[in-house]
Amino acid sequence: MxxxxxxxxxxxxxxxxxxxxxxxxxxxxxxxxAGKNPLCGDQLVVYVDVDHNECIVxxxxxxxxxxxxxxxxxxxxxxxxGKSIADxxxxxxxxxxxxxxxxxxxxxxxxxxxxxxxxxxxGVRQFPVRVxxxxxxxxxxxxxxxxxxxxxxx
Amino acid sequence: xxxxxxxPSNTFDIEKIRSDFPILATEVHGQPFAFLDSAxxxxxxxxxxxxxxxVYDSGYANVHRGAYQLSExxxxxxxxxxxxxxxxxxxxxxxxxxxxxNATEAINLVAASYARNKLNCGxxxxxxxMDHHSNIVPWQLLKAEKDLVLKVVPITDAGELxxxxxxxxxxxxxxxxxVPHISNVLGTVxxxxxxxxxxxxxxxxxxxxxxxxxMHESVxxxxxxxxxxxxxxxxxxxxxGIGVLYGKKELLDAMPPYMGGGDMINTVTFEESTWAELxxxxxxGTPAIAQAIGLGAAIDYINDIGLASIAKHEHALLEYTxxxxxxxxxxxxxxxxxxxxxxxxxTLDCAHPHDMAxxxxxxxxxxxxxxHCAQPLxxxxxxxxxxxxxxxxxxxxxxxxxxxQALETVQEIFG
Lengths: 154, 415
Description:
heterodimer; A: alpha+beta; Sufe protein. Chain: A; 18% strand; B: alpha/beta; Aspartate Aminotransferase, domain 2; 7-stranded mixed β-sheet
């Protein structure tokens, strides 16, 4: 029982959950979107700045949520900064696969290095109701980039 | 008031009771199942499961229609369940008991049929900060439609209603007061009798949302003198899909139908229709037949044990669990009203309620984590969520111990 829980709550998650990176609202947010998980009350806002080359030059977030949702948002901000929107979207798709598919092999995929870092979150596979927590910030980022103001996991 | 505790057959044998609930013998993640989420929906005893099975095995047909024996038997059983509810609530007339899908539908019925016709622009409805969304949203919908005023009675930090403010909010424009009997988040028992007295003296009708009350204490609608009382069957150890609206006969008689259809009419022509007598007027269409009969069986089950015995058992558990939880460092109990039932909301310094719930689940402990359909209350408390452990008649000290041990695991991981 504890092993499975330790797999879910790895040190990296606990660290990012307690001390989230890029946990701020920019002075003048360019694009933003709120992500809500009405079931458990998690809510966060992702801020993103995209340059004329469709490249993410800054990304940050604020919000309240469980360790999984906050850690995932924090890791996301570190990972997607500097990426193109297309690369970030591809990463999101593969990240969702990683969180929901048992034998997902990301080694040959684009962004394999980033996915390896995100693997700490793949423990949610064993906890289906927590997949929404892990992917909340990513869906909000996707919405912000598209200009959608709010998404809900319901 | 009917005092079931005086019934000679009343004994509280927790082991016997636990054995009545087949699901309690199952294991979850290899652990004994400590089910502490009865406030969301309660488990069902064998007696209820059997009563429902029996309907489909040997006693099923539509009600109120058939000219054959089986339909008459089913109709008798369905209407017999209504008699049981009538006695359970000590209502004066059986027609005052309307079967609905759940308490939510019962509240919406009052909003759509009573309040929509009685209240006019500028009239006031009073609710509380402790209300479940089901006693907020129907009034908001009506407020928008009729340009009403919705007032909210605040609570103290302990989770008790500010009666002083309630008295001030009551005006001659207040036409309806709608309050929970017991808070689903805080476990607070509201002084509904006093609320009803005050509201009546000011000319307002009162709806009591009894969802969290009927399984914890005996309710006497005549003693309370409430105008409407709503509850759901599934929280009373009965099936889901069946709820009850009690309403005073003179009010229900004066109200227009809520839904139109079969069973709720007297005569129908293309020009006009006339309505059936109570309770039929409010029960359009084929009702939840087996569910109503199942609810009747749940009431029989509760009566056999006795609500006074149940309350005593649950209160002892509440005290035991509260004292054990209070010893856990960093744990805060949300809702410390002097009069409360065995519903314990809590937060831990080190972990979010959702993370607590996941770890507790792996330890075999089922609790609810989230806003409990009471987002405005969460805002008032300044919390995004709480973890809630709620105890029913079948819970025991082992469940409380398992909860506390699992909370230690949370601290081990997050500490």
